[in-house]
Amino acid sequence: KMLVLSSALRCLGSVLSVAASREAKDPFVNIAAADEARDYLSEGLFSDQLLGAKVCAGFLEAEHGRRGQAFCERHFLHCGRVRMMTSMRGKLADMIVAAGLVPGFTKGRSRGLAAAESLSAWEGETELVRAVVCAGLLPNVARLCDKGGKRRMVLKDGSKISAQQKSVVQGDRLPKSDGFVCFHELVRTSALFGSDLCLASNYAVVVFGDSVQRVPDGLLCDGWIRFRAEGEVAEAMLRL
């Protein structure tokens, strides 16, 4: 779903990197210094998926100047795993072309990456890419709430979930505004954790939610998320 949407919305390159990073192991080496590198690279992204995309993009840019190894060493990345991510990115691009999702391109050597470039005019728009990622994760979503001076992520049934230790989407780092966090799956150990988190805007939840209904005071999304909206605004959102 993410790949199809990103093709239509011209941000395919970044989403290919997101999908490739999902198929690989954590690219950061297991030492304390890697946590600082992770925080540095993820600044302003609010998405575990977009961090993977940024790692891919940074490595590919460095590799053009034959500095890929140096890029990995500087950011405490496992070079072999990053290379696997970029290789998978190319294979996914070939799949997109083979599926006929890119007009004017046919299956063949290196055609996939060329096609991805032609559909990546807006890949630098972080909010757009985040919205496409969230579209692929919905309806797995938690609402952001302020309780006891802390930002919490709350599910439909009222359960609280936490970010896993290595996630870059930690409650105390998120914007102080209403919003949502999408997740890949829930994992229960000592508590309930969400894996692969991504900040979601109100608009992303409304536009890409599975079920959006008109209610007297606005919109109801997926049977539990309410948005207040004036009549004309609500009707316009339903048409998107």
> From the helix content, strand content and strand pairing, which structural class follows?
alpha+beta
Shape descriptor: globular
Alpha-carbon distance between the two ends:
17 Å
Largest sheet entry:
7 strands, mixed
Give helix and strand order, one letter per element, not per position: HHHHHHHHEEEEEEEHEEEH
Strand order within the widest sheet? 5-6-3-2-1-4-7
In the predicted model, the low-confidence regions spanning at least 5 consecutive residues are none
CA gyration radius, whole angstroms: 19 Å
Mean pLDDT: 90
Secondary structure tally: strands: 10
Q: Helicity level, as a percent range? A: 40-55%
Question: How many H/I helical runs?
Answer: 10
> What is the percentage of strand-forming residues?
15-25%
The total number of structural domains is: 2
Which terms summarize this structure?
18% strand, 2 domains, 240 residues, seven-stranded mixed β-sheet, alpha+beta, 10 helices, three-stranded antiparallel β-sheet, 45% helix
